[in-house]
Amino acid sequence: MASSAASLYLDPQIRDWVLFPITLVMILVGVLRHYVVLLLQSPPKKLSRAAIREQRALMRAQILRTTSANSPVPPSVYRSISQHLSQAFVDGTYLKDGPPKGDAPSAPPNPLTDPSQMDGMMAGMKTQMVMMVPQMVIMGWINFFFQGFVLIKLPFPLTLGFKSMLQRGVETPDMDVRWVSSLSWYFLNFFGLNGLYRLILGNENSADSSRDMTTPFAAAAAAPQAPQAQDFNKSFKAERDNLEFAEGLYEWVGKDVETRILKKYGRLS
Amino acid sequence: MDLTNSLQKLAGYRPRKTQKSKETYDKGLILLKNGGYSRQGDEGWETLEKLALAALDQGDVEIADQCLQLIVNKFPNSPRVDVLQGIRMEASEPPEVALKFYDELLESDSSNAAVWRRKASVLRDMGKIDKAVEELSAMLDTFYTDVEGWIELADIYASCEQYTYALQSIAHALLLAPQNTFYFIHYAEIAYLAGDITLALKIFLVAVDMTDDDDGPVPPQDSIPVGLTLRAWYGVKLCTRRLITEPRLVSSSASQTAAPSAAILSNIDELSAERLRTAYMNMKGESAPKAEKELLTALAVIIQ
Known about the structure:
The complex is a heterodimer of chains A (269) and B (304).
Chain A lengths: L1 H6 L4 H29 L8 H19 L7 H17 L23 H32 L3 E4 L9 H4 L12 E3 H11 L1 H8 L7 H6 L3 H4 L10 H18 L7 H8 L5
Antiparallel strand pairs in A: 1-2
Helix pairs in contact in A: 2-5, 2-7, 2-8, 3-11, 4-11
Chain B lengths: L2 H9 L7 H15 L8 H16 L3 H14 L4 H14 L2 H14 L4 H13 L3 H14 L4 H13 L3 H14 L4 H13 L3 H15 L15 H19 L16 H23 L7 H12 L1
């Protein structure tokens, strides 16, 4: 092993003209990608008043429900709010398009036909393209010009298990594992540069490759438009049951508070 | 400070001419003169916003305009700046102009709650209480979680002596912020004004339960009520006194809150009197007046 390591001598030109350029190009492409993504991002679409009202109506019921076991409001008030909400849910007062007509079961809207949904999906796709295309180009470039290059020798010994990781594209069974091939150097950079991007571009950068690798459609799914797809009429109906259930659990915080206080101050035992 | 918070603050802004705004004004002025705001990043811009508000408070429209110009140049199209401009307009222009400005803003973006609330407050200042209530209720119907909005609505109702409606508004604020004792006391005080004494008594007691220092080094009966606890005990005392002297109040609760039994009531009455005496002793350094009436008047001065 020692003799084979000594017999390999890397031309400094490889360092200057292959190793550094690959690293530099990858860094620059990452920075460029960050700015392109910033340019492509359209500002989140403003919801109309009715849509916000629809979205937040459920929250009203939830707020009421979460306090019910130890509610700050007296029973009569609690009951009137609860019944008002549940009646409003039945009548569809909070629905964006007014109360539903007839009792035909409304199919959940197809996300592909709704233009606002499409926007969200397109934005996700665009970001994805900006992520993937440059990486493919760089990989092609390295494969075309530098295939089979050995670029660098790691300063520490490694076991044979790392061979497939560090010497991709160089099929020599008995070369020391410490030598790194050009394609492997690309992959090392691809995963390893995130820390550097964070340093250059701040924490919320879009050059970070780890995100787009893990979830191809997460950007589209996590877009703020996504919750619109849910059928509010149905969730309102479900919320009614929850409200009734919470009403059964209702307990006023002011119930027996006198005795509680008297006990606390030692007037009652 | 995040955006929603700041927007809520701006929405609730009212000129007060306080000492604090004078201080902010004097300090901010130096910063504006030497251009120090631009070196501090985001914080500098926030200071500039504060200075603008303080300048308006002090009636110095010129300085406010200077700040506003800088802010507008830096952040065009920001809803927060829009609100700030509206406040500036309210300061010197007739309310109709500001109202029109807000209307235009709402037309282009109907989801800006802060602008909506400012509009309601302008309407209130113009004396169009009914319109203000209408706007504010419509806003709260959409943006239910705006606690300050509910409190403002309650305030408007209370100023018109519509205590029942005021109670309903604060009930929503209580649901939204059940950890805030101040709202409880507010609720109890309005209930007291509305004549619902049994409810007021209960809520005052809840407030006592929330604020007193039961994890402190001394047992609760030896602790000294201060601040909100004192205010709550004072309310308790007022309620028990009225319930004992006017028995018909026991059964006239609008919220059908049952009054405690006579024995418990007198017990609570004694306890609250004892608590109030302790507080009085501690603050004045002399023993409290024997007569309950005098004690209550003396304490009313302290609590104010």
